[in-house]
Specification:
Blueprint (H helix, E strand, L loop, with lengths): L2 H14 L10 E2 L6 H10 L10 H6 L41 H5 L4 E11 L10 E9 L10 E11 L5 E12 L3 H5 L1
Antiparallel strand pairs: 1-3, 2-5, 3-4, 4-5
Length: 187
Amino acid sequence: MSDDTAQAKTALATMRALVGRPIGSPSVAPDAVNQPMIRHWAAALEDENPVYTDPAFAARSRFGGIVAPPLMLQTWTMPTPKITGIAARGGSPTESTSNPLTPLDDAGFIATLATNSEFEIVRYLRIGEVVTSTMVIESISEEKKTRLGPGHFVTWVTTFRDERGDVVGRQTFRILKFKPDLEALLK
């Protein structure tokens, strides 16, 4: 068995040991759900649904007041980015003391491609709610041959909760961590 193969097997075993376990600490929203962020989101996406921005209309709706667009769910718990040092962090907007994907990086699976994201919206968020998210690795595939190079699909689930601990939604996110096949990429 080559050193590369042994390192890849060790990386896979290390990653598989993380399946079903939380990744890091819960992330608490730096701000409560608020009208300015909702308004900016709706404007940026040209979403003119009045339940997001018109208090009178929203009061008469089935919601009884302003609600946040459902796909804003992830934005509430995003940390405030730190611009200084972003290039040295490989584009990461925040400093991190640990990265659960490091074993794959160390085994040569250094490239990342987001493959898909799915949201399950349990209910709409209301102004003033504070959201917390937790992430759990759901699965990691056996090594797959792709035209980009050999790699592993890694899937994690982020669960979003309100301040009472009730689930308000989930996001399933999948990436391909791969060893770039430079010859194939240049074709």
